């Protein structure tokens, strides 16, 4: 494998390099000389500067890809078997993960008593809506709870409590959302143009800098004389958010920003915590996978901007030791889910974890199990958190969050809602009444092509089909066709750790110095073309189809 | 819980035997940097997460939020003379999360003793070096003479 690849590289370099002895004369002698000598800029040739330049070139390459899918594939290009990724999401929200969530999303969090002043304008009308709707919402909650009880009786007795919690939340949220959309439609015209996703996939992938290097990296750097000074330099980590909200509401136009997007002062920037430890120390899992970015729809849907999402909180029941710090977990989840969804939306506008957004996006998040509700308003000002952006990026994201409150005390046998809390309903109606607005004079997709903005716009049939297939394959995250080469335990013991078989031929990948995880996504042949189907005839030597990787 | 067998009662034997549980926890210095509210232990292989939690809470009154355990594979090495492969025992590690306000710093038990000992060691080494240098200087022009020859 290694040899083949080297051979390929060699061939490529022979084919593309200019001929060393070519003596082509300049087209015009006057082009060759200028009044003042023009020198290329003097570049810093230190290791760090070269790495930085290489990274900038890479970011520029991602920026220059014209399609949304192309960009998402491009980010995955360096790894055939995916990146080692930290998994965030609603599956597991570990204790005390708020600082980590803030660092990884570059978020300034504010725990507020009421929604930001931005919502005050709609105060009176919302009060009147809440008064008129309270009765029907109580009925809906009662009805949904009765439905849940009916379904629960049909479920096996050992159904985990977290699953029941999610089921109840799902029933209540679906009813409330349906009711509010119907009831407010006349007064809030934008609600009649929304699209509702039930059980959508909310996924986002990004890179985070400023994390302490693992021991192995430190040891490696320490072993190289000139790298000794960089031993403790922070490293980047790939992060994947995977959420499965109950439902999400989308619109054609984005919500208005809560506050203007601006560069913050040092004092504000220092308020964002820096979590330097490995994410596993706090309880997050890591896995090898491709980065997937899906905000609940595929590129091309006209409803590209989220209004609000309902997240579940069943992880609290899976992790019962939390005690009084429940609100911290909810805040962390609120930050993660809002950032995850907004980053997905930003990526579908042509931005990425490397190319920062040029205008703010905002969203509203509700975390609930039907009875307990907490509300979050999030404004995305920046998507770049990688490498030294953690220290240098002058922009931060903002999150305002309310602590959990009960919507009702209980629902009795007859389905009557007892102890209904009108304030929760008001907050919720505020979210629905927040009118999205078209951004006038803003180029929403500056980094996408003019004719080609998504793969479906591509004219070339082969290229379109190829990119579509690769994109869906990556986003499905099924295992690669060729599985990761495995090191058997006996090999680890008798070949790698202890050299007990020195005379055997070295044929396995670890004996040839190949790291399978460093393999690039395009490091494979295209599909085989049978002789009869080869475009240049049976005798043609072009045996494999072309790749169209971005 | 002990893994020892309780002997079958024979007439005349003492009737009550109490075996201590083979549960133990050993505080270890973490190899990787960890947040200050996380403490790492080496524990007996039979202990579960609940056991670790109860052990710390009930015996030492340490507030515990949660416990994660894993079994670290023991390293293998060659037997120096015969050359076969030996394996060290696996060990169970427990990562105990304390409430976030708590801070734990691994104690530096031997630091002071070490310093004093190191100083005296260094002094002895330096003295020996000086002595040897003197000896070489003295015998510079009479190579091959044994050390006991001069007075």
Automatic annotation (TrEMBL), chain A:
<dbReference type="Pfam" id="PF07147">
    <property type="entry name" value="PDCD9"/>
</dbReference>
<dbReference type="InterPro" id="IPR010793">
    <property type="entry name" value="Ribosomal_mL37/mL65"/>
</dbReference>
<keyword id="KW-0689">Ribosomal protein</keyword>
<keyword id="KW-0496">Mitochondrion</keyword>
<protein>
    <recommendedName>
        <fullName>Mitochondrial ribosomal protein S30</fullName>
    </recommendedName>
</protein>
<dbReference type="GO" id="GO:0005762">
    <property type="term" value="C:mitochondrial large ribosomal subunit"/>
</dbReference>
<dbReference type="GO" id="GO:0006412">
    <property type="term" value="P:translation"/>
</dbReference>
<dbReference type="InterPro" id="IPR039982">
    <property type="entry name" value="Ribosomal_mL65"/>
</dbReference>
<keyword id="KW-0687">Ribonucleoprotein</keyword>
<dbReference type="GO" id="GO:0003735">
    <property type="term" value="F:structural constituent of ribosome"/>
</dbReference>
Automatic annotation (TrEMBL), chain B:
<dbReference type="GO" id="GO:0005762">
    <property type="term" value="C:mitochondrial large ribosomal subunit"/>
</dbReference>
<keyword id="KW-0687">Ribonucleoprotein</keyword>
<dbReference type="InterPro" id="IPR013025">
    <property type="entry name" value="Ribosomal_uL23-like"/>
</dbReference>
<protein>
    <recommendedName>
        <fullName>Large ribosomal subunit protein uL23m</fullName>
    </recommendedName>
</protein>
<comment type="similarity">
    <text>Belongs to the universal ribosomal protein uL23 family.</text>
</comment>
<dbReference type="GO" id="GO:0032543">
    <property type="term" value="P:mitochondrial translation"/>
</dbReference>
<dbReference type="Pfam" id="PF00276">
    <property type="entry name" value="Ribosomal_L23"/>
</dbReference>
<dbReference type="InterPro" id="IPR012678">
    <property type="entry name" value="Ribosomal_uL23/eL15/eS24_sf"/>
</dbReference>
<dbReference type="GO" id="GO:0003735">
    <property type="term" value="F:structural constituent of ribosome"/>
</dbReference>
<dbReference type="InterPro" id="IPR012677">
    <property type="entry name" value="Nucleotide-bd_a/b_plait_sf"/>
</dbReference>
<comment type="subunit">
    <text>Component of the mitochondrial ribosome large subunit (39S) which comprises a 16S rRNA and about 50 distinct proteins.</text>
</comment>
<keyword id="KW-0496">Mitochondrion</keyword>
<keyword id="KW-0689">Ribosomal protein</keyword>
């Amino acid at each position: 494998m290694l040899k083949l690849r080297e051979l390929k590289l060699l061939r490529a370099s022979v084919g593309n390099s200019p001929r060393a002895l070519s003596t082509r004369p300049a087209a015009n002698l006057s082009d060759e000389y200028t009044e003042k000598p023009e020198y290329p800029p003097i570049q810093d040739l230190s290791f760090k500067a070269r790495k930085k330049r290489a990274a900038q070139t890479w970011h520029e390459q991602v920026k220059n890809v014209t399609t949304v899918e192309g960009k998402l594939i491009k980010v995955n290009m360096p790894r055939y078997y995916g990146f080692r990724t930290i998994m965030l999401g609603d599956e597991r929200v570990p204790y005390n993960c708020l600082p980590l969530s803030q660092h990884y999303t570059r978020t300034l969090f504010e725990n507020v008593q009421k929604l930001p002043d931005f919502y005050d304008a709609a105060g009176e009308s919302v009060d009147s809506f809440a008064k008129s709707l309270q009765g029907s919402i109580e009925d809906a909650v009662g009805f949904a709870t009765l439905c849940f009880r009916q379904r629960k009786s049909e479920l096996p007795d050992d159904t985990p409590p977290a699953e029941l919690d999610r089921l109840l939340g799902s029933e209540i949220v679906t009813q409330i959302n349906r009711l509010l959309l119907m009831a407010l439609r006349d007064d809030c015209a934008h609600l009649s143009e929304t699209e509702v996703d039930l059980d959508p996939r909310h996924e986002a992938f990004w890179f985070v800098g400023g994390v302490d290097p693992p021991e192995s990296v430190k040891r490696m750097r320490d072993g190289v004389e000139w790298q000794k000074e960089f031993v403790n330099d922070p490293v980047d980590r790939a992060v994947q958010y995977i959420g499965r909200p109950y439902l999400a509401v989308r619109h054609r136009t984005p919500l208005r920003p809560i506050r203007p997007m601006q560069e913050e002062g040092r004092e504000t920037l220092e308020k964002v915590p820096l979590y330097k430890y490995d994410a596993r120390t706090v309880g997050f899992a890591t896995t090898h996978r491709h980065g997937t970015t899906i905000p609940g729809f595929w590129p091309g849907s006209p409803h590209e901007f989220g209004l609000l999402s309902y997240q579940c909180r069943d992880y609290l029941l899976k992790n019962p030791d939390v005690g009084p710090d429940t609100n911290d977990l909810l805040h962390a989840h609120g930050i993660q889910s809002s950032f995850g969804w907004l980053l997905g939306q930003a990526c579908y506008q042509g931005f990425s974890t490397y190319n920062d957004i040029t205008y703010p996006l905002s969203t509203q998040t509700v975390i609930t199990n039907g009875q307990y509700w907490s509300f979050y308003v999030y404004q995305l000002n920046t998507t770049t958190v990688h490498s030294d952006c953690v220290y240098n990026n002058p922009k931060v994201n903002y999150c305002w969050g309310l602590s959990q409150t009960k919507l009702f005390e209980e629902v009795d046998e007859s389905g009557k809602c007892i102890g209904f809390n009108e304030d929760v309903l008001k907050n919720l109606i505020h979210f629905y009444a927040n009118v999205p607005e078209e951004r006038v004079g803003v180029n929403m997709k500056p980094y996408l092509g003019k004719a080609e903005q998504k793969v479906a716009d591509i004219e070339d049939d082969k290229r379109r089909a190829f990119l579509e297939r690769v994109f869906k394959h990556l986003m499905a995250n099924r295992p690669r066709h060729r599985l990761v080469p495995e090191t058997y335990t006996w090999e680890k013991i008798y070949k790698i750790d202890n050299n007990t078989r020195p005379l055997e031929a070295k044929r396995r990948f670890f004996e040839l110095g190949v790291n399978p995880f460093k393999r690039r996504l395009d490091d494979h042949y295209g599909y085989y073309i049978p002789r009869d189907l080869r475009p240049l005839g049976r005798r043609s030597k072009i045996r494999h189809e072309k790749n169209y990787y971005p | 819980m002990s893994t020892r067998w309780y002997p079958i009662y024979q007439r005349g034997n003492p009737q009550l035997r109490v075996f201590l549980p083979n549960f133990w926890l050993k505080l270890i210095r973490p190899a990787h940097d960890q947040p200050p509210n996380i403490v790492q232990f080496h524990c007996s292989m039979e202990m579960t997460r609940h056991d670790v939690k109860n052990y710390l809470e009930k015996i030492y009154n340490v507030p515990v939020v949660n416990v994660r355990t894993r079994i670290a594979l023991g390293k293998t090495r060659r037997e120096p003379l015969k050359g076969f492969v030996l394996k060290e025992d696996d060990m169970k590690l427990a990562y105990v999360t304390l409430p976030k306000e708590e801070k734990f710093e691994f104690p530096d038990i031997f630091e002071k003793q070490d310093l004093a000992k190191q100083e005296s060691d260094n002094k002895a080494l330096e003295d020996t070096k000086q002595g040897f240098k003197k000896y070489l200087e003295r015998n510079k022009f009479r190579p091959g003479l044994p050390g006991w020859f001069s007075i």
